[in-house]
Amino acid sequence: MMLMIPGPVQTRPETQAAMAQDIAPWDHGFRPTYARIRERVRAIAGGIAGEHVTLPLQGSGHFIMEAAMRSLVPVGAKILIPMNGAYADRMARLAREAGRAVVTLDLPNTRGARAEDIAPVLAADPAIGHVALVYSETGSGIVNDVPGIGRAVRQAGRRMLVDAVSAFGALPFNLAEHPECDALMFTSGKCLEGMPGIGFAVARMDAIRAGAGQAGSWCMDLADVLVHSERSGFGSIRFTPPVQVLAAFDVALDLFDAEGGQPARHARYRANADALYDGFVAMGIKPYVSKSEQGPIIVTVHQPSDPRFDFARFVEALKARGVLICNFWTTPEPTIRIGAIGALTPEDMQRALAVFRECLAEALPAAA
Ligand SMILES: *Cc1c(COP(=O)(O)O)cnc(C)c1O
After folding, report:
1. Topology classification of domain 14-258
2. Residues 307-338: pLDDT tens digits?
3. Does 94 contact ligand 1 (Cβ within 6 A)?
């Protein structure tokens, strides 16, 4: 089966094999692995030792997003979220439910947010202390200009939090060049091609320390994760982690390095996404966003408007031929979204496109 979904992604056999063992998380055989993973992801983020720290948290991406929000943004403080997709909606909801004062900026959902969108809003409202945004919008495939927006946030003297869940490891970002960024959040199961089960915030230690006591939750308190690490060691974890997932993640990071790190992964995903985009256009299927706005992570296309097209049956037909895609959409209009990420190559994309063509011809036979 080819898993062409936004995550968890297709993984390599070496990564899968690392899970087939029993491990005690606090055992001295495992602690160095956990500590090493934290160093490795900080390095990928361009973090600086002594300034940035990797704070892991059990659970899916929303858990680390909420923990970062609670740990870095004071209760009741104003936080600006540019709204241009399903994952921005989710971030706004979790910030609101955590009692932070969300200021939304509505933008079109077919282009990335830019510094020019954000700067005037910050200038108009000095009470906004933080900007939180999604790097790669996993509903539509657009990419927000996080480095550019970061510069505008810095010029305005505000702080930034980035949901890099579907971007980290593929899209470039260097924390050392972005002192305004308090944290980047991501998970084990997307562009780093590990198994799902743990999230990471690579965060500024000063910002985490400044937020101590405000999380309103022990489990979600990243300041407490830092205190625990400093007291018990960076190989120690507060509560039982998905330990096999971490063992597999260490192998996934070896494969990431062997491939050539972020630039190589970005190039492969870009080639995958381009192959899909061009392939769908050739099939007469309309992409959701223009080619210039098409990011390398997710390709979203409109569903055929022909009334004979039955999306659920289409997804099952693809699956019967070995291609698994997402069976729901998160755009306002009915779309099909396909992941260009995971352990897949442009050759795999061509194989998948052939399957799409067959299933489309079956769903919509040409009038005889
Ligand atoms: C996958 C994803 C998340 C987290 O989703 P979970 O299901 O909680 O892992 C958050 N933000 C973005 C942009 C994502 O792609």
Report:
1. Aspartate Aminotransferase; domain 2 (3.40.640)
2. 999 999 999 999 999 999 999 999 999 999 99
3. no
